[in-house]
Write a structure and sequence with these properties.
Structural class: alpha/beta
Number of helices: 17
Strand order of the largest sheet: 9-10-11-12-14-13
Strand content: 15-25%
Helix content: 40-55%
């Protein structure tokens, strides 16, 4: 369990931190017979679901005996847990979902089954085939900046925040981040990768994983990434899909518009967690990150991850892009909201410089044509401590990123 002293207004039992996804999870369970929560391993899915639905029975399909029960006698398994249950690691027995479909067709009472899973390719395929229209699909990423503050001893400076990452176990158990991430990577490579894809040479895949981490925040060039790893383009594409399936990395799409011929369509590669990037790059301390050549890219990845969490944990998918045209104009992040679009530049420097605003001003000048006249909110998120409201943009210090409305 994730430990802390609860605030009086928390809906969680004592000793569990509140997660932003909980209201959306409760709402989905009031409307769908099944709710499926996916996300990386150790992001807190089990804790969240068990805390939110304490009266549901709980069963994990990780132990071999439970997995064998569900696989060999699915009807008996559902008779035992069919009243209301949290079923953990459901991707371990994807064929169970076909029987679950029949169960909820007979009794579609809302919130009967709460499913969790980590490897999302196989799980999503099974869900879309068997539970279409019967399940809400939600994503839980590691803790947001605001959620990290609920722990007794959260990081208080930028470099430690980046280096420590945002997986709850690091803060709950007091494990040194470099040790925890080393174990996490070993477990992911040795176990989850083999479940998703038959990779014979794990050492080459580990090289691919580290090279991909070194390209976080950059335009994706699969051919070059494959060549640097010693594999072909098709293998690189398949292996990147493995990283996406395990919620290790994702492709941030380029913004499309009616000026599409003048825009770069190549996606950017980002990692879901800055601490994991630091571990894969061999950054062993926050002090080492201070002078690392990829500090700016890691900061941009962290900002992108926080924006993604702010939306996904409210049940919103998509709507986050970057902008780049063929003349070199680039804006790190574009978040679409109902009233406006938010153009965001991520700058790891501690002092605001005038050139922080250049790309935002040029993007806003073109906005009427690019986005049909919707208002542009210009924001700079930087590594300093002082919020500023300037004519050019709103300047948000890194620790205030969770106050930025991007949904």
């Amino acid at each position: 369990m994730i430990q802390l002293t609860n605030s009086p207004n928390s809906d969680y039992p004592a000793g569990v931190i509140p997660r932003l996804l909980q209201p959306k999870l409760r709402s989905a369970a009031r409307h769908f017979p099944v709710v499926t929560v996916t996300g990386p391993r150790q992001s807190g899915k089990t804790t969240l679901c068990r805390a939110t639905f304490p009266r549901h029975a709980y069963v994990s399909l990780e132990p071999p005996d439970a997995r064998d029960f569900a696989r060999t006698d699915p009807r008996g398994f559902l008779r035992q847990y069919g009243a209301a249950a949290v079923i953990d690691e459901v991707q371990r027995v994807p064929e169970l979902l076909s029987y679950l479909q029949g169960e909820v067709d007979i009794d579609p009472a809302p919130g009967r089954f709460i499913l969790t899973g980590s490897a999302n390719i196989g799980l999503l395929q099974a869900v879309t085939q068997s539970l279409a229209g019967r399940t809400a699909l939600l994503n839980l990423l590691p803790c947001s900046l605001a959620e990290l503050r609920e722990f007794p001893a959260p990081p208080t400076d930028l470099l430690t925040t980046l280096w420590s990452g945002s997986y709850p176990a690091v803060f709950d158990r007091g494990i040194p981040p470099d040790e925890w991430f080393a174990s996490y990577v070993a477990t992911y490579v040795e176990r989850d990768v083999r479940q998703i894809l038959n990779i014979g040479d794990l050492s080459t895949f580990q090289t691919f994983l580290r090279l991909a981490a070194g390209r976080t925040g950059q335009l994706l060039n699969l051919s070059q990434l494959g060549a640097d790893t010693g594999i072909n383009h098709n293998t690189a594409r398949a292996w990147l899909s493995v990283l996406e399936a395990g919620f290790i990395a994702y492709r941030l799409p380029a913004l499309r518009s009616n000026l599409g011929k003048r825009l770069v369509a190549t996606p950017k590669l980002h990692s879901y967690d800055a601490g994991l990037v630091c571990s894969l790059l061999g950054i062993r301390s926050p002090q080492q990150l201070e002078t690392h050549p990829l500090r700016g890219a890691i900061f941009e990845t962290w900002v992108a991850g926080e924006i993604l969490k702010a939306r996904l944990h409210r049940g919103l998918s998509g709507g986050v892009f970057f902008y780049r045209d063929r003349k070199g104009l680039e804006v790190d992040l574009i978040a679409e909201t109902g009233e406006a679009i938010v153009a965001i530049e991520a700058k790891s420097g501690r002092t605001v410089a005038t050139d922080f605003f250049d790309a935002l001003e040029r993007f806003a000048a073109r906005h009427g044509t690019v986005e049909g006249g919707r208002a542009v909110r210009r924001v700079v998120v930087y590594g300093g401590d002082e919020p500023q409201r300037r004519r050019e943009a709103t300047v948000v210090p890194w620790f205030g990123l969770d106050t930025l409305r991007v949904w």
